Amino acid sequence: MSAMTDDAAGFEPDAGLVPSEATIARREMVRQLLRSKTFVLGNLIVAFWVFWAVTGSRLTPYDPLEQTADILVSPNSTFWFGTDQFGRDIFSRVLAGATATLTVAPLATALAIVCGTAIGLVTGYFRGVVDETISRILDAVLALPLIVIAVTVLTALGSSNATLIAVIGLVFTPPVARTVRATVLGERQLDYIQAAQLRGERAPYIMFVEILPNIMGPIVVEATVRLGYAIFAIAGLTFLGFGVQPPSPDWSLQISENYTLLTAGTYWWTVLFAGLAIATLVIGVNFIADALQHVVDE
Amino acid sequence: MSEALVQEVAAPYALELEDVDVVYRVRGTDRQVIRGVTLNVERGEAYGLVGESGCGKSTVALAIVNYLPRNGRVRSGAIRIAGRDAMSLSGSELRKLRSSAVSMVYQNPGAALNPSIRVGRQVAEVFRVGGSSDPEATDRAREALERVQLADPGSVMRRYPHQLSGGMQQRVVIAMALATDPALLILDEPTTGLDATVEAEVLDLVAGLQAELRTAVLFISHNLGIIGKMCDRVGVLYAGSLVEEGETDTILTDPRHPYTVGLLRCVPRGGVRKDHGRLDTIPGFMPNLGEELPGCVFAGRCSLAVDRCRTEAPEPHVLPRSHTSRCHFHDKAQSLPRELAADIALVPVDRNADPLLRFDGLGKVFKQQSHAVQALVEVSGAIWPGETLGLVGESGSGKTTLARTLLGLVAPTSGVVELDERELAPTLKGRTPEDMRALQIVFQNPDSALNRRHSVRKILRRSLKKLAGTTGSAADARTLELMSSVRLAERYVSAQPGQLSGGLKQRVAIARAFAGEPQLVVCDEPTSALDVSVQAAILNLLVELQAERQVSYLFISHDLGVVRYISDRIAVLYLGRVMEVGPAEVVFDGPHHPYTEALLSAVPTVDGGGRERVRLVGEIPSAAEPPSGCVFHTRCPRRVGAICDEVEPPLLEVEREHQMRCHIPVEELRSLQAKRTAPA
């Protein structure tokens, strides 16, 4: 009866809170991700490498930086992956080699995501001249081959992990900015932006408090995709001698130190396992990216 | 197989549904969405299926053509199209049946057409699949487009879908749907996205074709007026159950189910206005998807319900004239107590006082690549305190541009806006917080208007801070006050918009607009995304707020019944120009501008009949190249001669407070229009 009187007063009657669509959607998203084989497998692979990146040489069977056996021993029951030209255990080196890549790549990606998101928000929100100007500059950067810029800057500033992070982060900023800008343009059409303007909100508030939470999905996907590329970029630069510097057991470094042995034949294990390590990590990251993309798109 | 053929010839029905249950499998459990629906559509008959959103209308349509989403299935019952069991067919047989016996037209024609294929090829494709050679298919495509009365089909065929207007797109889709002479045509809200005048034309077309081709039509709509106009029989669907069925006239005039009775009462009609009557509402909400309902599906919202209704599901009661009602008390349905909001006292508008808002000579030109689009031309007017100015016109007439210009979201190219005799800066940048507080808006679509990541509390507190300067614990108190003033229960305060129904979301949006005690609120089609029963509650709320606070509204709507209900004065816009403005009853009762006359007659009403259709030829011209002279002359049914083509009539006061832009003297219009409405 009381519900009736409420209604007479025009009250929207009691429906019970509709089971939160947002919560259901989020839960459903997690459920979908967990059901996705690629997502689970990708995470297992990445978690494996993150574990070794964190523990480094502490848990490896041998010290990855010291000679522990004869040189160039082929894989056997003691040295599973064999030893390299300095008699170091390659199995230990492959495990410990995750550290450099998994430090530089995520930090470079984070830098690119932060800068790219900020630029994407500004260009997408203001449009017009601001957008035109910044977008043309980004296009110009995108037009230059990544390796050329990176090699030039690294040669000029000298190679260190910090410069590597900065260079890769900045080179990856334009593509992130582009993706974010496109998403912001879609979001910009929605009326809540006008509602915010009509109560006198300033642009930074609208960009970071109103828009940003709504575009986190695509940004997370972009971050995972970029992480995969960043690992490749670091591997390439390191191989060329502009990235991670010796004596790190970094995978690419291992390949670049040993690939001449391949031409001599027979010493395939000095290169193969490091190469496989890079491949599995990139594939793992891309599995996660694919699964996220799939779920966010739905 | 031969038996099936014999059946097909003999089957009297184009469509038979027999006790159909449809379930969706959600997280391991079956949720029932269609509950034992039985209906038959005879050959050549137009059958209307009406109900509010979420009642299962579209699911019925999808089940018929076997297009249910992957987690949906017909659990029991039979579906026969032209006598053939649609559920037992194999993939290829089903495809054949779909391509020849049944066609479907959806709400959004833009999505039904392939954007990258020219219209001609798309339509011809239907015939090619049917076995025609290329040139033959092209010829038949041209004929098909002629049949749906597209002017110049040759040029239409060469264009891409996005180069056609919504009305033209829907004609193309209908042409494709009818290409194979189907036994059954399913129309799912075919005109919902279209303007009233275009809608009227498309409906005329469908009615004409249906009579000519004797195609059976299943017409799905939430709009009782359209169903009333188009259909021979109608079924009312509620929570997946067909609660009432019968001849259209019977259902509309003598409903025997409380839901139908309530639904019919919600629609503002018959010239009801806010100052002499509140709108009926239907309390409560439709049951959730798949809810177990042992008794009558409507019992939870029915004020006639007794214990029996909650425990025992009513069987369809057969009434005279093949009218059935699933109600234990069908004979008492019409005595359903009225759900009326409390009476309120509206303060009469004093137009001798200074207006709240005045706009003078507003013009807006949008520059597009090579040409300029004149969205507003010399628009002047005023809104007094406590007054509602209704703004009507087809899409592209400049309604929204005018609203955005007044709010300062876009700068006018010329003209001024004055608030309380004070000139306002052209854009928000130059306006003071005080100006922003005074002018607020309620948008059409609350999903778009509310940030889906912010809670109700955050949304309202932020507006209170920016518009009223209220923060801290005072803001908490004010948030609850605001929620109570829009009749929103306190427990929704930490909900996010996604957790709320459409009506509740719109209440949040209204609360936000009222956070700073605004003087004028622009309502941009605030109820067009809502169901009629929710619409009635929102309109009641807006009127209550107006009575309490003397707030003024600029109310934009394409629903003339709604505009008439809520407006004190009405302005009619066409191609960015005010064609007519005056008190609501004068604009509605006439003499009206020929354009207003056409708009009014385009609307199908529940009451039916009344006005004879004034047909508008074609669609609204491009604002980039407006016609010479009177901009309406290209479509005007009362065009008097060369003067209309050459000289633009001024907006003149034809009666007290009634202005019009027409060369025809008002007295002549009055007698012309009186002749038409008088009974023949």
Overall description:
The complex is a heterodimer of chains A (298) and B (680). Chain A is mainly α. Chain A has one domain (49-55, 80-297): MetI-like fold (Orthogonal Bundle), CATH 1.10.3720. Chain A has 13 helices and no strands. Chain A has helices spanning 2-8, 21-35, 37-55, 90-96, 98-126, 128-143, 146-157, 161-188, 191-198, 203-211, 216-240, 251-263, 269-297. In chain A, α11 (216-240) crosses α12 (251-263) and α12 packs across α13. The longest helix of chain A is centred in the middle third of the chain and has 29 residues, at 98-126. The radius of gyration of chain A is 25 Å and the shape is elongated. Mean pLDDT of chain A is 85; it is low at 1-19. Chain B is an alpha/beta fold. Among the domains of chain B are: 109-181, no CATH class; 261-335, no CATH class. Chain B has 25 helices and 24 strands. An 8-stranded mixed sheet of chain B has the order 6-7-8-3-9-10-12-11, sandwiched between helices. In chain B, strands 18-19-20-15-21-22-24-23 form an 8-stranded mixed sheet, sandwiched between helices. Chain B has a 4-stranded antiparallel sheet with strand order 2-1-4-5. The radius of gyration of chain B is 26 Å and the shape is globular. Chain B starts with a helix and ends with a helix. Chains A and B meet through α1, α2 and α9 of A and β18, α17, α19 and α20 of B.
Name a few traits of the molecule.
heterodimer; A: 298 residues; mainly alpha; MetI-like fold; 73% helix; elongated; disordered N terminus; B: 680 residues; alpha/beta; eight-stranded mixed sheet; 25 helices; 24 strands
Can you give the mean pLDDT of chain A? 85
The number of distinct β-strands of chain A equals 0
Give Rg of chain B in angstroms: 26 Å
Integer tally of domains of chain A: 1
Number of strands of chain B: 24
Write down the oligomeric state.
Answer: heterodimer
* Principal-axis shape of chain A: elongated
